[in-house]
Amino acid sequence: MAKVALITGVTGQDGSYLSEFLLEKGYDVHGIIRRSSVDFRERIAHLEGKPHFHLHYADLGDSMSIVKVVDKVKPNEIYNLAAQSHVQVSFDSPEFTADVDATGVLRVLEAVRACHLEKTCRVYQASTSELYGKVEEVPQNENTPFHPYSPYAVAKLYGFWIVKEYREAYNMFCCSGILFNHESERRGETFVTRKITLAAARISQGLQDCLYLGNMDSLRDWGYAKDYVECMWLILQNDRPEDFVIATGVQHSVREFTQLAFKHAGIELKFEGKGIDEKGIVVKGPEKLIGKTVVAVSEDFYRPTDVVNLWGDPTKAKARLGWNPAKTSFEQLVKLMVEHDIAKVAAEGAAAKVRTNLAEYLEKGIVK
Ligand code: NAP
Ligand code: GDD
User: Fold this and answer.
1) CB atoms inside a 10 Å sphere around CB 219
2) Pairing verdict, β 122-128 and 174-179
3) pLDDT tops 60 at residue 356
4) Is 190 a known active-site residue?
5) pLDDT of 201-259, one tens digit each?
6) Region 117-145 average pLDDT
7) 203, 280, 318, 323: least buried by Cβ within 10 Å?
8) Dist. CA 302 → ligand 2 center (Å)
């Protein structure tokens, strides 16, 4: 019999890759989506209609909806990926973030208990390197003290501890993956990497003048989302429930990411100035861009408290799960994201041009 997995947050970056991964492993995959006036299912559109892929409406803010789905699906594994996942947004919507990212985790665990599945259902919790926040040591491993530094991180800290509590109190197989930043061509467009790769693509095609960023000194350990979903699965296949740090072990700044992304888009940048006055100026690339400022800093993207030094140590995951953190390098990641966005922007530009031409032809009576 095929194993049954339930994924919350199936429409997100990780949910879509994890669905593909589990379907390939022969799982029956059930995903939770929330109701909205427009369905945004772009990342899983290619999976809909597949015989082993099923969707259910529920919301992490609504216990009964979760219980109903868990009871119907009776999963062997739950991957709790649903969250308000944007750190900056958590400063504007701290209460909503706490409800989904903290109490939401409790609701999932309680649903497993309410359905009497605690002996048969394993639970993966999408925890985060943001727990290290105002970091107390580098690199960070499973024993590094936590110091959450945003409403998002504080909510996720509750999620981490409630999972640990249920593991010990009720002997449940539930674990947290402490994942460092992972990106892809499906990354949300307001996270810094995707914002940069889309802007590099647009600027190189003359469709945007300047990219405005916040703290460019911020350091992250960036990996490829497709590689990281494998680790979520490995954590649940382990012989005992444990928490793992998932990271590449390599650190780069937002500035380095920007420089490399623009290079892949055919633009060489030189950075001048400091802080709010810093600028990225074109020194090589398309003639009309030479000498132009295409990257600048805006206070709008500064955070009330910012996490600036994330660097993970994946030794435990390598040794215990046999996971390879070096599958996709930083350079390959930036390249694949930029190449994807250059093609996307070009296709959108071509489609817009067709629409403009069509409107013009209609007006002139060339096409009726
Ligand atoms: P994402 O692209 O923002 O996806 C978040 C998912 O959660 C979406 O499917 C969203 O649904 C869903 N969701 C939000 N609120 C919900 C609610 N009330 N009820 C049900 N579903 C809800 O995030 P991601 O990058 O894939 O990350 C997946 C998880 O890993 C998140 O928990 C995130 O906090 C955590 N994490 C991510 C990273 C990273 O670098 N990507 C690192 C560490 C931890 P809609 O499509 O309807 O909005
Ligand atoms: N979003 C954004 N936009 N961030 C910027 C910008 C900008 O214009 N300019 C600089 N940054 C800096 C932020 O201040 C932060 O220090 C860093 O770039 C990364 O920001 P994000 O890409 O928004 O990601 P994050 O690290 O805050 O959060 C992501 O990773 C966490 C794991 O560490 C999210 O995916 C979280 O859900 C995840 O838990």
Assistant:
1) 19
2) parallel
3) no
4) no
5) 999 999 999 999 999 999 999 999 999 999 999 999 999 999 999 999 999 999 999 99
6) 97
7) 318
8) 10
Atom number, ligand 1, closest to the C-alpha of residue 9: 9
- Residue whose pair of structure tokens reads 């030094």 in the numeric block: 309
| Smallest CA separation from ligand 2 atom 36, residue | 85
Q: Which of 8, 11, 128, 328 is catalytic?
A: 128
Is the predicted pLDDT of residue 359 greater than 80, yes or no? no
**Please, what is the end-to-end C-alpha distance for the chain in angstroms?**
57
Question: What was the pLDDT predicted at 350?
Answer: 76
Residue whose CA is at the smallest distance from ligand 1 atom 38: 181
- Alpha carbons within 13 angstroms on the beta-carbon side of residue 159 total 37
In total, the chain counts a number of residues equal to 368
Closest CA to 285 of 213, 203, 194: 203
> What is the residue with the minimal CA distance to atom 28 of ligand 2?
87
Query: Which three-class secondary structure string do you get for 196-208?
Result: HHHHHHHHHCCCC
* Ligand located closest to 98 CA: 1
Decide if 138 contacts 86 (C-beta within 8 A). Answer: no
